[in-house]
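Input sequence (210 aa), recorded before submission:
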Amino acid sequence: MDFKCSDLIVWKGALSSYQIHLASLNKPNLLSLDDFYRTQLPSLLHSRQPTPHLTRSELFSLMQWKLSRGKFRPRLLDFISSLDEALVKSASEKAFLSLPDLAKAVSELTVLKGVGPATASAVLAAYAPDVAPFMSDEAMEAVLGNSKDYTLKQYLVFANRLQTKAKELSLEDETFAASDVERALWSSAVGAKLPNAPAHPNATWQQMID
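Predicted structure, token format:
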């Protein structure tokens, strides 16, 4: 799917195919990890008032989700396991309080060993999906034509473009968050690799199923 596409039906089709394409990867526990990340974790974070924060075990599960949905780098899990619980709590509190300043929020999280801008973006997306999209390889490739530059500078450009696209796609009765745009792009990229994927660049797997 072309990032420049402005057809809401195409974007909704790609987004609605997310679960199908997630399952197509046949990764152990990925569906349950995705449910934790997208459904349970946001509720947990927002329930902790007045200072929302992340726990080390939650960060570990988030990292499992990230590595299962993308490239697996087992050493990162070892780094997360060795982090101090109090440091994870403090860093995540500072990051969430820094929003909507993405540069500051990411910087607060990357003090944690094993947490780079991409993982930091996943943490922030769980808390504020409208502001901080996850920095996935597939979405980076679609938006910037490059998925190898995991710098804060690159993330800020990426996030800004997804926020802009989300506003473009949002109507009075339809709300697209920046994280919805990321998931749609990821879904489209994964779906394009499946057997019998639609040949037209703006077609979606869901449209074929329908």
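Checked by second reader. The chain has a mean pLDDT of 91.
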